[in-house]
Design a protein that fits this description.
The chain is mostly helical. The protein has helices spanning 2-33, 40-50, 55-77, 86-124, 127-133, 138-176, 181-191, 194-220, 225-256. Helix 3 packs parallel to helix 6 (138-176) and helix 4 runs antiparallel to helix 9 (225-256). The chain is globular and about 65 Å long.
């Protein structure tokens, strides 16, 4: 029994230590974002990689999700003669929840893994040590530009994904379910509120920051060798996905509770 309780205590203390290290890392990353020097080339390169190159996967995911959501809502609503609510539910489902969450998870899958693998490889090949030798702070050069770019760019990706998702529901509803195109669009516009859009963009900024921070944190703290790079990449994606889902619940409570 003593050994069992000791193992639980050790795991709990390890969790607290990891949380503290990540909190310090996050504070350092944000402090470096507002202090010169600023590496704009790294920022624009990160913004291009996170934003533009992620558009295809985010757009396709949103489109097919919107279409499938329309089919499911129509099938469920038909049991209660409530098929007419398809435009409203698709709009609120995509903008409030599915658009930001799926966009964040796609960013975690694509961008977090890329950042973690890149920085972990730099650590293994001692390129980070070389930056220190050249009086360049690794947090300022590697972490701050990527985190800032993700915070600014992912909300734009979420906005595009929301729009494409709603259009996916529109295409399926008008071509397969017999909805009038003009009426469908009017119902969508009338039902959405500014709070829905603001919450979606705020979630995008939070999810982007989480995804970039996870990639940088696990990359900076990776083990040596190819096995360390692989473990850092895997752990970063898992941690980013879990934290994105947890942050989604917290932000939903903040915007829509009561």
């Amino acid at each position: 029994m003593r050994a069992f309780l000791g193992a639980i205590g050790a795991a709990f203390l390890g969790l607290l230590a990891s949380t503290g290290r990540f909190a310090i890392f996050t504070g350092s990353a944000f402090s470096h974002m507002v202090r010169p020097p600023f590496y704009m080339k790294e920022f624009w390169q990160a913004a291009l990689n996170i934003g533009f190159f992620s558009l295809p996967v985010v757009g396709l995911t949103a489109f097919f999700t919107g279409g499938a959501l329309a089919l499911q809502i129509y099938a469920g609503g038909s049991r209660f003669s409530a098929e007419a609510v398809v435009p409203q539910i698709v709009a609120i489902g995509m903008v409030r929840e599915l658009g930001p969450v799926l966009g964040g998870l796609m960013i975690a899958a694509r961008v977090t893994s890329s950042i973690a693998a890149e920085i972990a490889t730099m650590k293994v090949t001692e390129q980070i040590d070389a930056l220190v030798t050249l009086s360049t702070h690794p947090m300022k050069y590697l972490t701050a530009p990527r985190v800032l770019a993700a915070i600014l760019v992912v909300p734009l990706l979420v906005a595009v994904g929301d729009t494409i998702g709603v259009m996916g529901g529109y295409v399926v509803s008008t071509s397969r379910l017999g909805f009038n195109p003009a009426s469908y669009l009017q119902n969508t516009v009338d039902f959405l509120e500014m709070r829905d859009i603001v919450s979606s963009l705020a979630k995008g900024a939070a999810f982007g920051g989480i995804a970039a921070l996870m990639g940088c944190y696990f990359g900076m703290n990776s083990g040596r060798g190819a096995q360390g790079v692989g473990a850092a990449t895997k752990s970063s994606v898992v941690a980013a996905a879990v934290l994105i889902l947890a942050a989604n619940y917290v932000l939903t409570e903040v915007f829509f509770s009561g």
